[in-house]
Amino acid sequence: MQDLKDWHSQHSEAVLKQFEADPERGLSPQQVDRQQAQFGPNAITKHDGDGPLKRFALQFHQPLVYILLSAVVVTLALQEWVDSIVIFAVVLLNAIIGFVQESKALNAINALSGSIKSTATVIRDGVKSTIPAQQLVPGDIVLLQAGDKVTADMRLVKVRDLQVDESALTGESVPVEKNLEVLAKEALLGDRQNMAFSSTLVVYGTGVGVVTETGDNTEIGKISELIATTPTLDTPLTKRIKQFSHVLLYAIVGLAAITLLIGYLHGQPLLDSFMAAVALAVGAIPEGLPAAVTIMLAIGVSRMAKRKAVIRNLPAVETLGSTTIICSDKTGTLTKNEMTVEQIYSGGQLYAVSGNGYDPEGEIQAQMPQSELQSATVDPSTQPGLYATLRAGALCNDAQLMAPDTQNAQWRISGDPTEAALLVSAHKANMASGSLNAKRVDCIPFQSEYQYMATLDDVDDARIIHMKGSIESILPKCQFMLNEQGACVALDQDTIEQQVERLAAKGLRVLAFASKATSQDQTTLSHDDVAGELVFLGLQAMIDPPRPEAIEAVAACHRAGIRVKMITGDHALTATSIAKQLGIIQPQSAGKTVTGYQLGDLSEHEFSDIASNNDVFARVSPENKLQLVKSLQAEGHVVAMTGDGVNDAPALRRADIGVAMALNGTEVARDASDMMLTDDNFATVRAAVEEGRGVFDNLKKFIVWTLPTNGGEGLVILLAVLLGVSLPLLPVHILWVNMTTAILLGLMLAFEPREKGIMERPPYDPDAPIIDRILMWRILLVSSLLCITAFGLYELELMWGATEAQARTVAVAMFVVGEAFYLFNCRSLDRSVFSVGMFSNRWLWIGIALMMALQLLFTYQPLMNDWFQSAPISLEAWLRVIACGWLISLIVGVEKHLRGRNKTSQATSDTNTNRVSESV
C-alpha cells in the first residue's frame, strides 16, 4: 500500500487500481465486507474525558486538603466531635463548590454541541444509493455535489467546476478549485487540489472521488489523535497555587511538630499538645482559599460571559491576565470571513469602496492615480466604465444576497462568497440586480479549465455578453477597453497588468470583467462566442477584510505588552496585507511573513528564533501551529491560541488558553478549547484579557487579605505554647473565622471594579510568585498586628475577670473586626482606599454587615455558644476590639503611603538621571 500521505501524487487510475474499484460500478458487496473487516467503521475514535466521580475525587487532590483530612482523623481519635465535623464540612464544601462549577462549564459546552448524522452518496455494485457516512470504506466511489459534506478523504477521479470550502481544515479563506492533476509528494495539505478531505464542504460544482482513508486515518482523524496525545499544561494560577501549597505544607507540618515538641517540653498533657498542634495547623491553612478562588473565578466567568466569552475551565480566567502572546487564526477571527470588494479599476480610474462584509452600506470614491488620496463620493451612473464594471459583476453572477429578517439580524448570502461580494459592490452603487432591467438568456458556468464565467443578457433592449474571470483568461480575449468617458479605445494591456500587480501585492483577489454586444437573434452562448473582440470593462479587487474592532483590539494588546501573532493557512500575500492593516506587522519591524514550507526543515534553535522574531505565519499545517505554540512556551511565554477549524484544535489544546469560535467554529475546536467567543471576534479576546487581569488582581488582593488571618492565628497559637498558657483560639474558632470571613468579607473583593490603566501595564510574569517581597512584608506586618491585638485583648479580658470563653470570644471578634478594617486597605494594593472610592463596591458593605450580624449570633446566641464554646461579651470589649481594628487599618495605610512616596521619588530620580544622560 502506498504511503498514506501520497495519494495526491498518484494518477487517479492508479489509485482505483490499488483498491480494485470500478468508477462506474463501485465496489462489490464482497469487497465492501472485506474492507469493513480490515478498516472498521468510518468513525474517529472518541477520547472521553474524566467521569463525574473522578472529577469529584480530584477536588480532594490538594496538599492543603490532605492536612485538613489528617486533622479530621486526629480530632476523631481525640473524640473532639464538633471539631471533626466542622473541619470535614469545610473540606466537603470546597470539593462541592469546585465540582459544581466545573460541571456547569461542561454542561454549557455540551449544550452548544450538536450531534449531526452525516450521509454519503455512493455507487456500489452499479447502484447509486445514500448510506450513513460510518459505512464508507476505502475504495468506495462517492458522488459529490454542492451542499455535500465530504465524509472521508478521497482522491478525485472526476470534477466539474468543483469547489470545496476547506477553511475548517486548512484555514484557506476562499473555496478551493479542484482538479485531477498529479501533484508533487511535498505538496502541503492546502495545496492538494486533487483531493477532497473529510469535514470539508462542497460549495460549487460536482465531482466523483474514490475513498482513500477513513476514520482515524483521515486528515481530520490524524488531527484528532494529535489532540488526544497533546498534554494540557497547568495554568499560571494552578502552578502558583501548587508552589504556594507545597511551601505552606512544609511550613505547617514543621510548625505543628515544633508546637507538639514545645508542649511536651513544657510538660503539658499529650491531649493538649495535640490540640495545640491541630489548632496551629488548622489556623495556618487558608481553608477558605480554595472555595473563594473557585467562586471568584466563577464570578469572572459570569462577567466574561456578558462580554461574549464563555469559559470552559475556571483557571483559564486568570490565565488570560498572564498572557504574553496571542496566536490568532485570521479567517473569521481577525477578519469578518466575508469577501468584500475594496477597490475597482475602470476607465483608467481607481476607485475605493467603503464598507465591510455583506452589508451593502458603503460608498464608492474616486482616488488620485498615484497618491490614492480619496476624493468625493462618485455617482456610478455618471462614470460609464465604473457602471459597466459593476453591472457585469451583478449580472454575471449566480449568488444571492438576502436582507435581514425576523430570524436573522445580519445580511446573508447564498452561493459563492466571491460572487456575493460583487453583488454587494453593485448594491452600494444602487444597482441591485433586480433593478437593472436585465434578463439572462444563456450562461457558460465557471469551469476550472477556462477560469471564467459568461452570461448572455437582455439589458435595456440590447443583448450583451458579460464575462468575469481571472486576468489571464479575460485579457487575451479583449481588443478594446473603455476610457473615462465610456468610449471604446485600443486596449492598453501593460497599464492593466501593472494595476493588477499593484492590487495583488496588497493581498487582494483580482477579477477582470469584459463585455460584447451581440445580435438580438442569438439565444445560446458558447466558448467560441467569447473567444475574442471583447471590450475590457475593468477590475474588481476584494479581500476578506479585517474587523474594524480587531484593529483597535490589536493596538490595545500591544499597549498592554502582549504580542499578537497571526497563524493562518491562507496565502502569504493575503496574510501579510491583513497583518499590516491590523497593525500586527509594524512599519519599523524587521519581521516577515513565514510560510509552512520555510518551517519544514529548521533545527529546533532556528525554529525558536523564527517563532520569536516573526509575527505572521502563512500556509501552515496543524503540526506547524502546534510546534509554534510549543516553541513559544519553551521561551517562557504564556500563550493564548485562537481558532475555529479542525486544523487549529491541537494547538488550542496545547496552548495555555485555547480560544475557539462558538458561532462558526467546528465542534472539534470547541472541545479542545478553554474558552469560546460567542461572537467569533478577536476584540472579545482583548476584552477577556482585560477581565482576566481584573480577576487576577482581585485574586491577589484576596490572598494578600486572607493570609494575615492564618499568619496571625498561627502566631497566636505558637505564642501561647511558648508561654505555656491556654490557647486563645480553639480549632473550631479558627475554622469559624477562616470560613465566614473568607465568604462574607474576602469574597466581596471579587466584585471590586477593575483599576484604571489595567491594560496599560505589561503582563504578569508567569514565573513570578503571587506575593512579592513588598506584599510579603505587609502580610507579616498585619499578621503580627493581629497576633498582638488578639493575644493582648485575650490576656486583658482574663486579667479583668472575664471567663476563658469570654476572653476567647473577644480574640475571635478581634480577628473578624481586624480583617474587616484591613479589607478596605486591600481594595488597592498600592493606593489609598479613598482613591478608589469608599462606596464604589457596595457588595463590600453588604458583606461587612452580614459578617457583623453573624458574629453577633456567634457571641450572643445560646445555641452558637454551645457549638463553638463562645460567650457574650461587654460593650466595652467591643469598643476595644473596634479601636484595635481601626489602628491596624491606619498603620497599613501609612505603610502604603510611605512606600508610594518612595516609589514616586525613585521614579522622579530615574527620570532626571535619564534626562541628564540624554543631554550629555
UniProtKB/TrEMBL annotation:
The family database entries (Gene3D superfamilies) matched by this protein are listed as: Calcium-transporting ATPase, cytoplasmic domain N, Calcium-transporting ATPase, cytoplasmic transduction domain A, Calcium-transporting ATPase, transmembrane domain, HAD superfamily/HAD-like
Key words, A-Z? ATP-binding, Cell membrane, Membrane, Nucleotide-binding, Translocase, Transmembrane, Transmembrane helix
Work out whether the entry's keyword set contains Cell membrane: yes
User: Main localization of the protein?
Assistant: membrane
Q: Which residues form a coiled coil?
A: none
Identify the InterPro entries for this entry.
ATPase_P-typ_cation-transptr_C, ATPase_P-typ_cation-transptr_N, ATPase_P-typ_cyto_dom_N, ATPase_P-typ_P_site, ATPase_P-typ_TM_dom_sf, ATPase_P-typ_transduc_dom_A_sf, ATPase_P-type_domA, Cation_transp_ATPase_P-type
Q: Any idea where the Cation-transporting P-type ATPase N-terminal domain is?
A: 6-80
The reply on keyword Transcription is no
Write out the annotated subcellular location.
Cell membrane
Membrane-traversing stretches: 56-78, 84-100, 247-267, 273-299, 702-727, 733-751, 775-794, 806-824, 844-863, 875-894
Name the membrane topology term. Multi-pass membrane protein
Origin: domain of life: Bacteria
- Please report which protein family the annotation says this sequence is part of: Belongs to the cation transport ATPase (P-type) (TC 3.A.3) family. Type IIA subfamily.
Extract the PANTHER family matched here.
CATION TRANSPORTING ATPASE (PTHR43294:SF21), SODIUM/POTASSIUM-TRANSPORTING ATPASE SUBUNIT ALPHA (PTHR43294)
Name of the molecule in the record: Cation-transporting P-type ATPase
Q: Which organism is it from?
A: Pseudoalteromonas viridis
